[in-house]
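Quick question, first post here. What does this chain look like in 3D?
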Amino acid sequence: MDLLAGLAAILALVLNGLMAGLYFAFSTAVSPALDTIDKDQAAAAMRSVNRKILNPRFLPTFTLSPVVALAAGVLLLVDGAGLPGVLAVAAAVAGFVGSIIVTAVVNVPLNNALDAGSVDWPGYSPRWTRWNSVRAWSCALAVALLGTALYLWK
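> Answer (accepted):
Ran it through. C-alpha cells below.
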C-alpha cells in the first residue's frame, strides 16, 4: 500500500504541475502576445489552439490530475497517514474546482462563443485569461498541497 500511495501522490504532483504550467504559460505569455496582434488573427489563432488542445496528451493529464490526487489521498488515509491524506484530498478538490469546474463553466463556453462568432477578441481575452489564471493557481495550490503531503508522509 505504501508504494501505491507514494506513486499515486508523485503522479498527481506531476500531472497537476503540468496543468499549472500550461495554464500559467497561457496567462502570462500566450494571451498577452495574442492581445498585441490584430483581433481577428488573435481569435483565429485561439480557435486553432482550442481545437488542437483536445488531444491524447492533454486530455488524460487534464482529467486525471484531480482523480489521481484523490486516489493518493484515499490510499494515504487507508495507510494511516492522516494529515498527508487530507492534504492530497484537498489537492484533488483544488484541482477539480479550480481546473475542471472553471473550465466547464467559464473557459469552454467562452471558447464556444469565440468559435461561433458571438464574442469578439476584446470581449473574450480578458475574461478568459482571468479565469485561466484561476486554473493556473488552483493547480499550483494542488502541487503545493501534494508536495507538502509527500514531505510530511513517513
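Residues 50 and 111 are 7 Å apart (CA to CA).
Residues 82-116 form the longest helix (35 residues).
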